[in-house]
Amino acid sequence: MSEVNEGKITKSDLNKAFIRSNFLMASSNFERMQALGAYYSVVPALKRIYADRPKEERVEAIRRHLEFFNTNPYVYGPILGITMAMEEQTTEVEKEPVISVRTGLMGPFAGLGDSLLAMTVVPIYMSIGAGLAIEGNPLGPILFFVLFSVTIWPIKYKGLFLGYNKGSALLTGDNSSNILRRVSTMGNVVGMMVVGSLIVSTVKITTPIEYSVGKSTFKLQEMIDGIMPNFFPLLVTILIYVLLKRKSAKNAVVIILAIMVIGMVLSMLGILG
User: Where is it found, in Gene Ontology cellular component terms (predicted)?
Assistant: First the structure.
């Protein structure tokens, strides 16, 4: 690999990234979820990598890291480390896999963190602390905080360094170009799967329309689901994407208001459920 950015990420940059990663949820929003927090985490690394680079490349790096991102904040470390390693070890023409890999990893890591930590370990710690608090022991909340910190922070810290070291080792080896192409392909495939699953799980559009033929009653929603489930959510998502793309998302507020008004009108007319 040639013409890789000269800025070398230091341990200090990684430590700063770890500290910043603890604020991942501070600016979470419904448009890009944790994107601002994810960008804030990599700012020290980007400053190091792009210190002497043209303004256009710095702007493109910022734009790249403000893409949609959402995962479990407890296991964000490896994704952050791999992302910084890829930024450091790739040329400007090879930057597409950076976000593809990040998007591809956020789903599996979200499932891992939610099931093992958020839904298992944390409730156990909460029950221990709550049990003491109910008995009037003021150490209950303190014990929960200590147990939580001792478990979560090492996972985040070690995960970040592990992701960075392993990512750097893969991308600087003899087969780095082939690995990058494979990672890019896998990232794109998994990223598309994640986006597809988000459409199914977050966009809910149904219609109660039904009609009768003779003594039989046909429900339009059931017929469409039998041919192509979640057709309406997919159709509306594609339409909104086209509208946003047309004006570079500058019309986002207008589209949101239009969706609200159209949705209420169609619901009152009995077209939407």
Answer: plasma membrane
